[in-house]
Amino acid sequence: MLKLFRFISLLEGFSYLLILSVLLGFISRDLVFTIGMAHGLIFLMYFILSLLASHKQTWSIVTWLLVFLASIIPFAFVPVEIFVKKEIRKNEKST
Length: 95
Prior knowledge:
Blueprint: H1 2-23, H2 32-57, H3 61-69, H4 77-94
Helix pairs in contact: 1-2, 1-4, 2-3
């Protein structure tokens, strides 16, 4: 579950940066609909997987909120990546 969440987290972060690059003029505005739809689907998957991972890992509500808020802030997916990586290592050591 955490590995899938980690993958979706990275996708969500990069798709958000793609949307921002349209705003900055690096990517054509003709692609806004396509990028926006893809980002919307990835964001929904991120939200659902964050809830499932939070429940399975017994994260506190504050931890989940921080993970969720990271999806709104540009480049905040990097600390989430580090956090989830540590959680995966912790799970591998305990099994």
